[in-house]
Amino acid sequence: MDPVMVLLRLLHIVLGVYWAGTIIFSALYLGPSVSAAGPAGGQVMAQLVKRGHLNVMPAVALITMLAGIELYRRVSAGFQLEWITSTQGMTLTIGAVAAILAFIIGVFVMRASSLKVMALSKAAQQLPDGPDRKGKLQAIEPLRRRATLSLRWVAGLLALSVVTMAVARYL
To answer: What is the pLDDT of residue 69?
Structure first.
């Protein structure tokens, strides 16, 4: 038994389940529910931000990926091309690339757009009715659409990653 491999697998699988599960749940249920709830949905999102959700998720994703990269390095005997081009290697590579793309889109598009939506919403609430408030509220919708679309992409990429990693061993 290699205790480092056990720890790496534990981190990779448990945190990966949390990352992918949370994102897929958000894309399928939480996001649409928050949108349907109107202004009350904004309060839910504000609570998620207040509780650190938008900071925890990137950290969880990063630890998941770092553990995965080290697992990949060990299983591939130091990134040996012969293993990487095997069916198992290619399948895990597809999953790894999907997860890395999901992370990049999640942090730089989805998270950034969500934070801007929250900031504009908060600023608009503090303004009296008028053109300034209306302008801030109008600026929110394209950002909200961008956050929603990127959430769907991240969920799809993570679903692909989960599927490839679940079956790679048996190919």
So the answer is: 98
Length of the chain: 171
Sites in the chain below the pLDDT cut of 70? none
Phi-psi region for residue 29, left (φ > 0), alpha (ψ -120 to 50) or beta?
alpha
Residue 134 pLDDT: 83
Alpha carbons 113 and 148: distance in angstroms, whole number: 9
pLDDT at 160: 98
DSSP 30-43: IHHHHHHTTHHHHH
* pLDDT given for residue 166 in this prediction: 96
The per-residue DSSP string of 91-151 comes to: HHHHHHHHHHHHHHHIIIIIIHHHHHHHHHHHHHHTSPSSHHHHHHHHHHHHHHHHHHHHH
Long-range (24+ apart) CB contacts under 8 A made by 98-102 are 98/157, 98/158, 98/160, 98/161, 98/164, 99/16, 99/61, 99/64, 99/65, 99/68, 99/157, 99/158, 99/161, 100/65, 101/157, 102/23, 102/61, 102/153, 102/154, 102/157, 102/158, 102/161
